[in-house]
TrEMBL record:
One of its GO terms (biological process) is regulation of DNA-templated transcription. InterPro entries: DNA-bd_dom_put_sf, MerR-type_HTH_dom. One of its GO terms (molecular function) is DNA binding. It holds the Pfam family MerR_1. The lineage of its organism: Bacteria, Bacillati, Bacillota, Clostridia, Lachnospirales. Transmembrane segments: none annotated. Residues 59-96 form the HTH merR-type domain. Coiled coil: none annotated. This is MerR family transcriptional regulator. It comes from the Bacteria.
Length: 184
């Protein structure tokens, strides 16, 4: 093996940096090739950046929660804190939990496929009991009722509660893509 030997100090630094940074950054800070850092981490059993963090990528979060990436982007605009770790957009678990607790109207607990992050919280267990577990299509009667309630001055939240739908579902049905493709 033709590379430089790793000193004990470098191994300690490798472990510390691996907890905080992606592979390319660790390699640059250690003045080593990405391949050398990757192989040394593999041989020593040091986990990568994703394994040593309390953060989730947007894609991982969307899969766990059963929502689209664009929904999570919308949540960012509503206050969900994100961290840019190129090329990823990441979310701290504590920020996700805080957002989910403060905005229960934005998500359906029944669609969460991995609840290990939330199961310890009573508010999640209660929401899980109350949320509808199946996704169902809007009937024409429901669409008419929703539009009538809106014309009568009800808020999106009030309509969602009356119709047992999420606020995002109401908004999407009122203002979403059906206007652009002619469907209802």
């Amino acid at each position: 093996m033709g590379g430089r030997a790793w000193s004990q100090e470098e191994l300690i630094r490798l472990e510390e940096l691996t907890e905080k940074y992606p592979l390319a950054t660790v390699a640059r800070k250690l003045n080593r090739s990405e391949n050398a850092v990757f192989l040394k981490r593999q041989r020593t059993g040091i986990g990568g950046f994703m394994a040593n963090t309390d953060m989730l990528t947007r894609n991982t979060l969307s899969r766990i929660l059963g929502v689209e990436n664009r929904t999570i982007q919308y949540w960012e605009r509503k206050g969900l804190k994100s961290v840019r770790k190129k090329p990823y957009v990441m979310y701290r678990q504590q920020d996700i939990i805080r957002y989910m607790k403060e905005h229960p109207e934005d998500w359906n607990a029944a669609r969460v496929i991995d609840d290990t992050l939330f199961m310890q919280y009573p508010w999640f267990k209660e929401k899980r009991k109350n949320d509808i577990s199946h996704k169902y299509n809007w009937t024409q009667t429901e669409v008419s009722q929703m539009k009538m309630l809106r014309k009568q001055g009800f808020t999106i939240r009030e309509i969602a509660e009356k119709m047992n739908r999420s606020e995002s579902s109401i908004k999407y049905k009122l203002y979403g893509r059906e206007k652009s493709n002619g469907r209802s």
